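Before the break, one more example. Copy the sequence into your notebook; we will annotate it together after we see the structure.
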Amino acid sequence: MPKKRVNRGRKKEATGGSPWPFALLFRLILITAAGALALSYLSAFINPSKVSFPLFFGLYFIPILLINILLLIVGMFRKSGATWITFIALLPSLLFADMFVNWGETKSEREGLSLKIMTYNVGMFAHQKDIGRESALGSIARFADETAPDIICFQEFYIKDTAMIKTLFKEYPYRGSHFYKLSNGTMFGNLTLSKFPLHESGKITFKGSTNLCIFNDIDHYGRRVRIYNTHLESHSISFTSLVKRISNSDKMSEELLDVHDKMANTFKRRSRQVDTIASHSSACNIPAVICGDFNDTPMSYTYHILAKGRKDSFRESGKGMSASYGSLWPMLRIDYILYPAEWWAMSHTTPKVPWSDHYPVVAELIIP
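Here is what the structure looks like once it is written out:
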């Protein structure tokens, strides 16, 4: 009777044919990446003041998503039976895709009154060191004149003499602002310019911060509309300086923990700012637009709360990549125009102009 042959070679994965230690390692990588992606989904619904850890995953949603897509391709190529883990983890991303990329469907004509809004964090006109602040201000004023929005919401607007605003923006006779004064006498803050008359105006300031939100009620052809011009807490961490700090440090873990603590504190402060604005806007009995620099991605508590009951002009009528932060384009969208759900957005653009580390966001809204 013939003897049964026994395979004494290295144990291999049944489907992929790889040595079992590598197969196990690959499976662990799949699970880790899928878990990170799941946390990035959850981050939009978790208040950072309660727990901040998941918010880091939301901040890096796009890189985490790309890693999972790459792992899916590798897993399919290897014919790994564990690829289903990544496939299932990726499915919910389809629900969030239009927050970051939009194919730009053709919009049908809508009946109603047009309201064109531009929001732009001008970064105190300090982005282009070679041309100077006054030159950048003049260029932005000319750009605004060419773009011709009805409402302009500036954040981090820097000015030596507020009388210059009237001279530079002649088409906007109505203005609302709140400026902080620097030690050299210059000022910076939020500025709203309007072609429509303003009625009630006010500000929402935050303790211990120069970030703020101003609001102005405009008379839009006989109907009042509130405009919230928002600049929320930033992380105030340069990724370039972070790399330098870590590379020049013998205690990398301490540097990373320090950065983690600072970012966690920022998440908490920004969540309190968001809750304040959301509470203020919910008490408003007229239609309200919330726009500005949120300093947060669409996969965040910030976006989830402020967009509740509102539409996002990019998701409704944008085209291509959504990023508004030039330094990390096309990764970061942190500037938004959110408007009442009963309205429509006929257009959304993000002109790639060079005068700030942010790009302006311009949307034409239709009010029925």
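The longest strand covers residues 113-121. DSSP finds eleven helices and 14 strands in the chain. Try to locate both features in your own notes.
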